[in-house]
Amino acid sequence: MSEIKYAIVGTGYFGAGLGKIINGLKEAKVAAVYDPNNAEDIAKELNCDIENDVESLCQRKDVDAVIIASPNGYHKEPVLCAAKNNKHVFCEKPIALSYEDCNEMIDYTKQNDLVFMAGHVMNFMNGVRTAKRLINEGQIGDILFCHAERNGWEEAQEQVSWKKKRDISGGHLYHHIHELDFIQFLMGPAKRVSMVGGNVAHHGGQFGDEDDILLITLEFERNRFATLQYGSAFRWSDHFVKIQGTKGAILIDLQDVKVVLKTPDEEKRFLLHESKEVDEDRTRIYRGLKNDGAIMYGKPSQTPPMWLHSIMKKEMKYFHRIMQGTEIEEEFIPLLDGTAARASIATADALTLSMEKDRKVSVEEILTKEVLANDL
Ligand SMILES: NC(=O)c1ccc[n+]([C@@H]2O[C@H](COP(=O)([O-])OP(=O)(O)OC[C@H]3O[C@@H](n4cnc5c(N)ncnc54)[C@H](O)[C@@H]3O)[C@@H](O)[C@H]2O)c1
Question: Domain Gfo/Idh/MocA-like oxidoreductase N-terminal: where (predicted)?
Fold first, then answer.
């Protein structure tokens, strides 16, 4: 089989990590990278070219697929450019910061029959796959309610990252779209949503402008519900998803790392990652953190920890296999055509509108853009 060639837009913490993983895969090679600030060292390490802009990167004849790992607000331009140049796309999460942008990106990639995979890496955690299997086997019955928390405390920063700036990152909800995406995978798209919160404890030059408390309610068809909490104003940090069914429940704990199935008869424990060693390493990292908890962020100078590297590798392996011609499994079709990511952003947009307008919002308002006239 011939080698698949990749290009990367944005080679900071994540893009560089993905590039190193790609070069370690069989019949895969990074041909070129573009990054306005951090291309030199990684290009040397990957033994690849540096391009000076997105256009020339995407126009390269030797490139089959473009990996996009620029800051969240700068994903759209390279996705459209890659699609116009007939390149498949892997785009980091959140793929965009509005439903409209997601639509445009999906339209462009779909027109040319291209793969548009979203970097929703939770899908590649062993424990998440185990949870889905247990649910499919009927072990917890019908899912009635899910609850997720991803929060911690943020101290003053010497340098404020783009990840803390609402217009580029989207804030905690968009930046940490994983849990919302996972819950919608399990329960289907939310119908009506509400969110309260705000920036309650992080003002001034050493902080960004994102909200540090977000409290979310999702309503689904058939009287099913979910709640989520995100933010950096929580001194007691947590990171978990709890799935409550009619016959049992599942806890996916991403901080004190484990997956637990609880039924009236038993409590059974599973790994979240691929080995006990990786689970323990992740737990140790969180225990060692005095602050931040589940809201910690990587920087271009850092390399991802073992647990993150292991799921990034699984994710890239999967994308590469698809690039090599393997058929996409039914479960992964919405992950590989952008539609699952778009459904998460639609719900996030509805939640944002809910907080702005101080009312419940139907996700349909976002999908049809029929925001009530008196809201405008
Ligand atoms: N799936 C995950 O768990 C996960 C984890 C971390 C980051 N991410 C995502 O990966 C992306 C990158 O995050 P990161 O942690 O690597 O951030 P980072 O700040 O470490 O790196 C971003 C890089 O993009 C470059 N850049 C800035 N503007 C650019 C532009 N217009 N075009 C191209 N490159 C540009 C920067 O110079 C920097 O090198 C984000 O979308 C983030 O949400 C995903």
Answer: 4-120
